[in-house]
Known about the structure:
- The protein is of the alpha/beta class.
- Helix content is 43%, strand content 21%.
- It has two domains: 5-69, Chemotaxis Receptor Methyltransferase Cher, domain 1, CATH 1.10.155; 82-271, Vaccinia Virus protein VP39 (Rossmann fold, 3-Layer(aba) Sandwich), CATH 3.40.50.150.
- It is built from eleven helices and ten strands.
- Helix 1 (5-19) packs across helix 3 (47-56).
- The chain is globular, with a radius of gyration of 20 Å.
- Residues 19-21, 71-75, 79, 111-113, 117, 143-145, 148, 198-200, 215-217, 220, 246 line the site of S-adenosylmethionine (SAM).
Amino acid sequence: MTVSTAAFDYVRDLVAGRSGIALESRQAYLADARLAPVARAAGLGSVDDLVARLRIAPSGGLATQVVEAMTTNETSFFRDIGPFEALAQEVLPELMRRRAQTRTLTIWSAACSSGQEPYTIAMLLHERFPALAGWRVRIVATDLSSQMVERARAGRFSQLEVNRGLPARLLVKHFTRAGTQWQISDDLRRAVEFRQLNLVGDRPPLPAADVVFLRNVLIYFATPTKRAILGKVRSVLRPDGTLFLGGAETTLNLDDGFKRVQLGHGPSYRLKGVR
Ligand SMILES: C[S@@+](CC[C@H](N)C(=O)[O-])C[C@H]1O[C@@H](n2cnc3c(N)ncnc32)[C@H](O)[C@@H]1O
């Protein structure tokens, strides 16, 4: 199956308009590989036929399926360990001192994919901060893809997924076998609130966050979209909050409101003019 240039251009505009994801011409192969199953499931013979259908009904469920299929959902437990170590060793101990009166803490995992990132945070809090049991802790996890949010909420992972980054001790402690998969405990499932949320669009209707994980998603956007999203994150982040980005991402030359702070072995970002 090979997508025509006109069909790929249509997909590229649709995806950019609905998600901000900027596909490049050399990624036509990606549209082919990811949209062929969508076309087949809709009873259509090719990606070009799928696009012809979309041209007739551009705002239906099929368009949403196409956009979701074009997202990259690569993730793993304890991915690039640095931010989780910084969270445990520096950010949380300090936040627990600062929030000792209110005993509330909110962590937002933006673009959480299938849930490994927020569940890693939940495990880390459970393992290393038993004192937080008496606090009101919210871990809010969001993603554009409703399919990913559904998967994440279910908390079921394949053998391959639990083999990636999850220490055996935590697998045994927090997961049970469910056929060929692994089911995360109800306690950890209840610890995370999953919601579908598009980072492109209105200011997110979220509680003010003490920590934001916005990792490995800015890389998919063009510069104006990155700027707009960082502006929204600023409006959600508490004045003394901390932002973690992916290893290939930065706020530098994008948003003057943030400063880079070395925490542990890696960078994190804080709002300028506070602390
Ligand atoms: C590569 S995953 C990153 C997952 C996790 N943060 C990590 O670092 O392992 C990127 C995620 O961004 C989501 N995404 C892409 N565009 C988005 C948007 N406009 N709003 C919210 N999420 C988006 C995708 O659905 C995908 O699950």
